[in-house]
Amino acid sequence: MNHDDILFGILGNAFHCPVLGEFEFLENVLITINTDGEIDSLLKPDEYAVSDIMEVLERENRLVRLKEKQYLIPGLIDLHCHAPQWPQMGKGLDLPLYNWLANYTFPLEAKYQDLEFAKRVYDDLVQSTLSSGTTSAVYFSSIHLEPTRVLADTCLEKGQRAFVGKVCMDDVEQCPDYYRQSVEKSLYETEAFHQYVSTMSGNHGLISSVVTPRFIPSCTEGLLKELGQFATNNNCYVQTHCSESDWAREYSQQKYGETDISVYEKTGLLGRKTILAHSIFLTEQDVIKIQDYGASIAHCPLSNMYFANAAMETRELLNRGLHCGLGSDVAASVTPSMLRSCFDAVTHSRVREEGTSTKLAAGERGEAKTRISFLEAFWMATTGGGKALDKNIGVFRRGFSFDAVLVDANIQDCDLKIWQALDSASDILEKIISTTNRQNIIKVWVQGREVVCKQ
Ligand code: GUN
Ligand code: FE
């Protein structure tokens, strides 16, 4: 056979988590990728031994052979990231949300009308997220049309799968004069951006537009309704913040007498392609609605610990089978690394756990069985994110896009150390999740294209 439809093959060890809470170690697997950037086959040693495929790929220089202590994992999926806040990372996180937004975020986001500044920041951000293994990112941009196009162009040029939204905010009381738009302008620019993305040359589905009302306090009901109608008519992705702090939650109650979810439902913003960041304070009715609509939650563990002063009921939401992935919520985090988000999600779930002292009465401190495992967190950052976005990504499976990260545990001066005599496959995956630094990520592919190559 000539295998002409195979772009290249990778031979080595790979991990993925197709099922929540479980992992598969694909030992010495040969993954072949077709010219559309999809996985064409996953062959076990006894399968490729009886085929000529290895010989052909090797002869034609189309085979990547992984070394010892190099591992392939699925590309990581960040369901919630604020692109213009990249220069803000590491500032003011000890403030409450309201002050953080007013003192740092809005003044910074307002600067993006300067397209040169936008290009400089977005080049650096997209390079950094890719180098951290983020192959798909769901981005809030700023309120401006042109810089949002720059962000989409940058993702396309660098090869990152991206879901990009121009932020909409119009409320006169909640948004500063220098950083808000009228309903008409917000809607016009949302439509213009949607149109731009659908006609971007060379896009081929890598970039999607997202209708993006910032959150309930920053939007009037009129704006929410217009955006809801646009999203429904055009079957668009929607992203927003949902019940993320006491202040934001109480604002909805005071203004509408309802929860965020009810407001999003009534304004047509809740649907299968809606991504709700945070969603910390949900009522039982809210959870039922999210599940009925098939909407998704972007769990942002570190940001929640800082801004919600509360813990997400991740365990319960996963048990109920809601679509749930992870978000970095840059700049409400101190790294774009989704592996760090996995680690934070586990930490977040552990602080909820019931105290075990015999001096405590049942339920006196914490709750029973709230922990999530590293495998569950990793599932959220890969398989769960793929389900949330309704895309064939996050798992190594025939027909799925080849979005992958090559982790190298041979790098000097790094925390990821594998001791082969001591570490089982499950230990190795846990160590990858917990201790991988950016230096350990030596190659990244999106849709079969090599987008990071350090060796
Ligand atoms: N709520 C409204 N806007 C924002 C934002 O930019 N970041 C976070 N974390 N929460 C928000
Ligand atoms: Fe956010």
TrEMBL record:
Pfam families per UniProt: Amidohydro_1
E.C. number: 3.5.4.3
Keyword Metal-binding: yes
Biological pathway: Purine metabolism; guanine degradation; xanthine from guanine: step 1/1
Residues annotated as signal peptide: none
Gene Ontology MF terms in the entry: guanine deaminase activity; zinc ion binding
Transmembrane segments: none
GO cellular component annotations of the record: cytosol
GO biological process: guanine catabolic process
Highest taxon of source: Bacteria
Entry cofactors: Zn(2+)
Swiss-Prot/TrEMBL keywords: Hydrolase, Metal-binding, Zinc
Reactions it catalyzes: guanine + H2O + H(+) = xanthine + NH4(+)
Domain Amidohydrolase-related: 71-451
Cofactor binding, per record: Binds 1 zinc ion per subunit.
Family of this protein: Belongs to the metallo-dependent hydrolases superfamily. ATZ/TRZ family.
Protein role: Catalyzes the hydrolytic deamination of guanine, producing xanthine and ammonia.
Stated name of the protein: Guanine deaminase
Organism: Endozoicomonas elysicola
